[in-house]
Task: inverse folding
């Protein structure tokens, strides 16, 4: 393989389905997996004479997202028709936003390896409606389901600032966190709520010249894995193609590829159409949107702390690892639950362990978030304090936490009920230690000997005490007493 100097250049387009109750321009309900063509009306069926009405909530969601992505929000915007013919688009045009997107010139910060972040510029955020769905699985014919037609979508377009497949994936995941934190999308990949289209090419340095390979767009990727793999694949394919043919970027040689999920290869679909092919023009049926200051500030008062900022705060204020902070901020409910528990007085690392090592597992099994397990943050803080003070062992604390997800009782009551309170009473424990010492002269001798055997013998004596107390003795206290009795 030739050692060749090249840079991968990727810009990403993302379609995000909004968590609105109804469609973009009609009152039809947004329902996943409903009976085909049961959620339709004259507007989304594209019947003649039907008039669209804008979904105000969806516009607010897009403004919220644009603001969170540091975009300039347009004071005046309008709706445009993007004309094309396809069976799942009965109107023969999609209502979108062309030259006046709701948001423009922003940026998103994404995590990159080593705990650092990278700024990726956002070119635009606009609103549009989804098309229906063609189904080709029923027999030697195709079917069209228009339930999805008119679903409110946000299209987010980045500048080509991404330089490898991992960064592309990182951006996708970060965007998922952001829209979920904002509550503007469920961003459920299984339901197709996020679809990705990377535009990929290479800048190659060879013999003091720079060459650019033709840009290819990979259409309609609906998983992080497919996104990452397709970008990596395209980079390799383009490099091979360049080395073989020397083909370079010219106007008009953009290509559209699909992704074969099974073979894990990109497949050429068609040569790219240009914007003028779509014959964009303002939709005469819809009034333009004026975003005045009052409305904008009302919307923006709903902005919450964003996930990456929160992750960084957990690292700096609570001394968590970046990894742990990332797990806790993967959804807002969990992050808020953790934060509240720490603010209620629980040790951050211990609360983090409760949540990441036990809570998430139970929540997963129940199909809910950690915050919905029925444990109040102040109760979890209480439990953390009990473990810190040695009232209960770390293992017992986990048992109590699990029990707390099943009963409404206080951790202290549960500990008593399950007999998990550690004996820390020195007088009582001293008696037991004395009994153990009297009953095990050989082990005592070995423990005192100071050679190889002593560590093992010491462990044995500790174990005897723990057994006699049915595991309820505070090991730190026992170790102290034992050490003083054996004079080691
Ligand atoms: Zn409708
Ligand atoms: Mn689009």
Result:
């Amino acid at each position: 393989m030739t050692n060749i100097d090249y840079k991968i250049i990727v810009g990403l387009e993302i379609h995000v389905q909004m968590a609105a109750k109804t469609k973009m321009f009609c009152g039809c309900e947004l329902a996943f997996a409903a009976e085909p063509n049961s959620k339709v009306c004259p507007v989304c069926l594209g019947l003649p004479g039907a008039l669209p009405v804008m979904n105000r909530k969806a516009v607010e969601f897009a403004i919220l997202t644009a603001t969170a992505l540091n975009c300039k929000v347009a004071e005046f915007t309008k709706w445009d028709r993007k004309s094309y013919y396809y069976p799942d688009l009965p109107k023969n045009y999609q209502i979108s936003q062309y030259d006046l997107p709701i948001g423009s010139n922003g940026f998103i910060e994404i995590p990159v390896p080593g705990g650092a972040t990278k700024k990726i510029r956002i070119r635009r955020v606009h609103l549009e409606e989804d098309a229906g769905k063609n189904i080709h699985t029923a027999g030697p014919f195709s079917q069209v389901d228009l339930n999805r037609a008119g679903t409110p979508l946000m299209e987010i377009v980045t500048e080509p600032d991404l330089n490898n497949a991992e960064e592309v994936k990182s951006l996708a995941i970060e965007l998922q966190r952001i829209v979920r934190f904002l509550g503007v999308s469920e961003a459920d990949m299984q339901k197709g709520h996020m679809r990705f289209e990377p535009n990929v090419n290479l800048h190659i340095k060879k013999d003091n010249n720079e060459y650019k390979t033709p840009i290819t767009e990979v259409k309609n990727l609906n998983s992080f894995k497919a996104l990452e793999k397709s970008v990596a694949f395209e980079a390799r394919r383009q490099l091979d193609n360049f080395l073989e043919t020397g083909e370079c970027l010219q106007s008009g040689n953009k290509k559209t590829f699909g992704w074969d999920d099974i073979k894990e290869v990109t497949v050429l679909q068609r040569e790219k159409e240009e914007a003028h092919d779509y014959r964009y023009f303002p939709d005469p049926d819809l009034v333009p949107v004026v975003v005045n200051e009052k409305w904008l500030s009302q919307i923006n008062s709903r902005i919450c702390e964003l996930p990456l900022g929160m992750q960084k705060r957990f690292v700096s204020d609570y001394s968590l690892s970046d990894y742990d902070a990332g797990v806790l901020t993967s959804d807002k409910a969990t992050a808020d639950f953790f934060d509240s528990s720490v603010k209620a007085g629980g040790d951050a690392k211990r609360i983090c362990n409760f949540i990441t090592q036990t809570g998430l597992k139970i929540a997963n099994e129940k199909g809910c978030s950690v915050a919905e397990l029925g444990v109040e943050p102040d109760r979890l803080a209480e439990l953390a304090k009990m473990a810190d003070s040695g009232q209960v062992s770390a293992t017992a604390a986990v048992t109590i936490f699990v029990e707390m997800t099943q009963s409404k009782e206080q951790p202290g009551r549960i500990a008593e009920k399950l007999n998990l309170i550690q004996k820390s009473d020195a007088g009582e424990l001293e008696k037991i230690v004395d009994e153990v010492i009297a009953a095990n002269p050989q082990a005592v001798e070995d423990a005192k000997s100071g050679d190889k055997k002593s560590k093992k013998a010491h462990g044995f004596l500790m174990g005897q005490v723990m057994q006699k107390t049915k595991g309820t003795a505070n090991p730190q206290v026992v170790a102290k007493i034992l050490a003083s009795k054996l004079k080691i």
In short: The radius of gyration is 30 Å. The pocket of zinc ion (ligand 1) is lined by residues 23, 26, 28, 40-41, 43-44, 150 (CB under 6 Å). The mean pLDDT is 94.
